Amino acid sequence: MSIPASTSTPFTRSSPSPPQPPLFSQSAANTNPSDHRRRFSFKSSLNNNSNSPVEVATASWTSSIAHHCRNGRLSEAVLQFTRMRDSGVEPNHITFVTLFSGCAHFPSKGLSLGPSIHGYARKIGLDVNNVMVGTAVIDMYSKFRKMGLARLSFDQMGFRNRVSWNTIINGYMRNGDFEVAVNLFDKMPERDAVSWTVLIDGFVKKGKFEEALEWFQEMQLSGTPPDFVTIVSVLSAVANLGTLSLGLWLHHFVLMHNFRDNTRVDNSLIDMYCRCGCVELAYEVFRKMPKRNLVSWNSIIVGLACNAHAEEALEHFHSMQKDGFEPDSVSFTGALTACSHAGLVDEGIKLFESMRKVHRITPRIEHYGCIVDLYSRAGRLKEALVVVKNMPMKPNEVVVGSLLAACRNFDDVGLAERLMKYIYDLDPSGDFNYVLLSNIYAAKGSWRGASNVRMTMKARGVQKKPGISSIEVNGIVNGFVAADKSHADAESIYEMLEYLSEELTVCGYDFDVNLHDFF
Question: Exposed (0-12), middle (13-18) or buried (19+): which is 17, by Cβ within 10 Å?
Fold first, then answer.
């Protein structure tokens, strides 16, 4: 939708009684300013009794626009914006911030509307001369993945504050331009906890967990105290790396500072401990929480389920409901995972039906994946295949892979071969399922079948990724591949391995492979 061109400046059109916009609540006919003060949050322009009728009209129109933006009705918001100007009321900086924020939150819709609104803001100079508008423009283009336009807007701003700097850096981090983001961070005239958190959280969201921890260390050295958002991001990095010692240090840090009893931090601690395999510590955090929310319950349920504590996970699933919390899709994922690991097929099917019929939750692919895994672990492969075929969405490689793994466990080569047509379509470049099928053939002594899979991988350009084992020592994660000699302490490591192998041989242990091949 195009915006009518205008060269007028804000608040210059005169009108004895500016028309009010159509309101969007049941009191639409009421234009009493006191009602608007109760209903809208534009306090700076409405809470002052000395506001002019023009300012009151601008705020009222902006409130109506904001209502459409919050609900994703951007076309209606822009139409309201056009009506506002046609009625003789000029927008102010809050109007533009509202529109740009709406476009940023709904980029698929805002991509065609945002630049037009920006054009009008540029015409009257608000994007350059008002820091709030300029920052909103940067955020909008960043979420459109138009970092060139975001940077141009940033460079042309007459004044920038820390929010402006943080926003442009966050945009680059979100789009994976780490080097540019770090260079801008180094140029910031003044940094705060948010500035550091933007970098740390940006690395975490892009899977750069070690870099995130390095920047957290730099933040500590700079003397900038972290806020709870920083701690949540760092705990996420620790959880993904499995660096338990650092997680324990962070927990101590939380207890010694003002993050004690912060629900979001406690939820992250539960998740971190569960993913590091320390369920007891996770449960201790959960037990001592003065206030829990749904995320707290989901974290402990999923954590218990994934660490083979199926009965406890199901107990917490039922306790959560007794405590007044309605389970959501994540809750059911945890409960179904628990049933799968415990072999509770009937219980899992009942939960799945309850999710759909009682709680009115539409199953997602992860729920169908749990049911496939439930049948597969129980050896009911035909029923698992029926679920895969009848899923309302296309199965992904994880769903099919769980059934393929069951084919290996239950020696069902025929079903494994039938599944390959799904695998070729789903993930033609993925190596895991190809290797799994090859191993199924090899286990059955079908060397021709294994060779055919390897030839198919070669023809399709699929290369087997090396498996990596890791161990944490003194807070540092050390990774190894098979026969790896690149580690700095490789000589000492292999000496210890040889010593242990000799001790095991003396004790009568028979190795499946010749360990001396690795020395």
Answer: exposed
Residue 513 is predicted with a pLDDT of: 52
d(CA 71, CA 101): 12
Given a cut of 60, whether residue 38 has pLDDT beyond it is: no
Residue entry with tokens 């324990």: 248
- Cα 65 to chain center, whole Å? 29
CB-based contacts of 91: which residues, under 8 Å, 6+ apart?
Answer: 10, 58, 61, 62, 81, 84, 85
Residues shown for the chain? 519
Task: Dump pLDDT digits (tens) for 154-180.
Answer: 999 999 999 999 999 999 999 999 999
Residues facing residue 469 across a β-bridge: 480
Torsion of CA 429, 430, 434, 435, to 10 degrees: 130
Q: What is the pTM of this model?
A: 0.78
One DSSP character per residue, 343-400 reads: T-HHHHHHHHHHHHHTS-PPP-HHHHHHHHHHHHHTT-HHHHHHHHHH-SS---HHHH
Per residue in 74-111, is it b (16+ CB within 10 Å) or e — as a string?
bebbbebbebbbeeebbbbbbbbbbbbbbbbbbbebbb
Cα distances (angstroms) measured from residue 401 to each of 181, 371, 433? 38, 13, 6
Helix orientation angle between 209-222 and 193-205, rounded to the nearest 10 degrees = 170
Matching residue, tokens 């001396």 = 516
User: H-helix or E-strand containing 1?
Assistant: none
C-alpha dihedral, 64 to 66 to 70 to 71, nearest 10°? 30
Q: Which residues lie across from 83 on neighbouring strands? A: none
* Number of C-beta neighbours around residue 126 at 10 A: 23
Query: What residues contact residue 147 under an 8 Å CB cut-off, 6+ apart?
Result: 141, 171, 172, 175, 177
427 in helix, strand or coil? coil
